[in-house]
Structures are given as C-alpha cells and as structure tokens.
Design brief:
single chain; 268 residues; alpha/beta; TIM Barrel; eight-stranded parallel beta barrel; two-stranded antiparallel sheet; 41% helix; binds SN-glycerol-1-phosphate
Length: 268
C-alpha cells in the first residue's frame, strides 16, 4: 500500500485545487511493448533534478476482460514505479488483491440492481480480507454519441449528454448515500467526452472529488474537463494508441498546477 492512502491523496489534491491525471490500462489491450512505452513516458519526467512521475494514478480495468493478464500487468507497473494502481472493475471477476486500491463502483446512473449493490455483496468478504483500499464511488455513465461496451455490458441507459441536471441530481444522491468519489464517464472510446456543461453542473452540486473520463483523446479535451471542474481526468484509448499524448496531457496538468502547494511536480 502507498504511504498516503489514495482517497486522502485525491481529497487533499481537490482541497488544494490541484489536478490529478490517471492513465487507464485495459489488460486486454496493452501488450508488453505498449505497456513499457507508457511506463517510460509516465515516469520519465525530471523536475528540479528529481525524477517525478508524470501521472498520479494507474487505473486498471475494463467492462469486459478476456484474459488472465491483470496480475502480471499490475506487477509490471509495480516493478517499474510507485504510482498507485487502482482497480476499475467491470465486475467482481476483476478484483485483484495485487493492486493498491479499488474503485468500488455503484452504477448510480443505471437501474440494474446487480451493479448498484448485487456484485458488491458477493465481493465484500473478499475485499474485506484483501489489503485493497476501498474507494466508494458513485459511477455515472453518460451518453456519448454511440453505444459503448460499458453501456451494453452493464445493461443500463446512460444519462442523456444534454441533461446536466440529471447527472447533477444523480451525483448529489450518490454523495448523500455516502459515496466518497463521483466518476462521470462517457465510456471507453466514446465519440464525445462528457460536456463541460455537465461537468460544471455536477461540480457545483457535490463536494466529493470528481473523476471524469471517456473519449478524452487530446490535451485540449483534458484541459476542458479540468477547467469545467474535474479533479481527476482519466485517459485510456488515446494513450494506448500513442503514448506521446501522456506527455502532452501531463504538461498541461503541470501548467494548471503551477503554484499550487504540494503539487507532485514540485517534488513534494
Ligand atoms: C473509460 O474513462 C475511461 O471508462 C477512459 O476512457 O479509453 O476513452 O480514454 P478512454
């Protein structure tokens, strides 16, 4: 486990106004060469002659995983760097105690009881025995221009992209139920990311740190999400396709965090 808990890091960053950057690796999609390129890009930065990671978190997961490669992927990351590894599971089949933490997602935009509470009941005794830090997360899926794997597999209807009030009320309810993080996701490979209007509406409705992802495949889109109120931006596909995007986005995160106390880019 990392010295400072993941929730504490995310919450502390949010309170300080510091933005965080997470890279999502899908064990089915990341081969050894891609993984190494991402790890090199993600950890190669030197600031004030100190080696500091360019990213804050690795998220590991996907809605549908068809291989047994998750554990070795986590091990590869851990052998390479100390960036916390957080599971982003599509089901309780994806729990892996080798990670540092797990987003315990309740799919609160949907009405599928299995993903609201069912899987959690089955997973609870295993999670309790593990050393994983449990991150209670209200997961809100947003319509993004085409059906995504997550909307199909979860058998839920995403929030319409032009209805920010629905997302805001859903986030409020999640926070009132005790969820510590809110994740607004357009789904991996989304045609359109979550709109700034929706991010702003959710930001104004909850105190919980806000994670935003899905279809963010350029530095401009990442900046737009941060400026609208995202505390953590998650990028998967775009970086799997070209690891240089990781460097471009991390440079923007560094710029946004300039002058913010405790930024990891300041070597603290
Ligand atoms: C999906 O938020 C993540 O759940 C990342 O999406 O792969 O489209 O970047 P992308």
């Amino acid at each position: 486990m990392t010295q400072t808990g993941v929730l504490q890091r995310i919450t502390g960053s949010k309170q300080a106004g510091r933005k965080s950057f997470a890279v999502l690796l899908d064990p089915d999609k990341v081969d050894a060469t891609t993984c190494l390129a991402i790890l090199r890009a993600g950890t190669a930065s030197k600031v004030n002659s100190q080696a500091t990671p360019r990213i804050d978190f690795f998220f590991i997961g996907g809605s549908l995983i068809t291989s047994y490669s998750t554990t070795s992927l986590i091990q590869t990351i851990k052998d390479f760097c100390s960036v916390p590894v957080i599971l982003f599971p599509g089901s309780n089949l994806h729990i892996d105690p080798a990670a540092d933490a797990i987003l315990l997602l309740s799919l609160i935009s949907g009405r599928n009881p299995d993903l609201l509470i069912g899987q959690h009941v089955v997973a609870a005794p295993f999670l309790k025995k593990s050393n994983l830090e449990i991150l209670s997360t209200g997961y809100i899926l947003v319509e993004s221009g085409r059906q995504t794997t997550v909307s199909y597999i979860s058998n839920t209807t995403p929030v319409p992209h032009d209805k920010p009030a629905i997302a805001a009320c859903t986030a409020m309810a999640g926070e009132m139920l005790g969820m510590r993080l809110i994740y607004l996701d357009a789904g991996s490979g989304a045609l359109n990311p979550v709109s700034s209007r929706m991010i702003e509406a959710v930001r104004q409705s909850v105190e919980a740190p806000l994670i935003v992802g899905g279809g963010i495949n350029s530095a401009q889109k990442a900046v737009a999400a941060f400026e609208a109120g995202a505390d953590v931006v998650v990028v998967g596909n775009g970086i799997e396709q070209d690891s240089r995007l990781l460097i471009e986005i991390s440079d923007e995160v560094r710029r946004l965090n300039e002058g913010v106390r405790g930024s990891h880019y300041q070597g603290t």
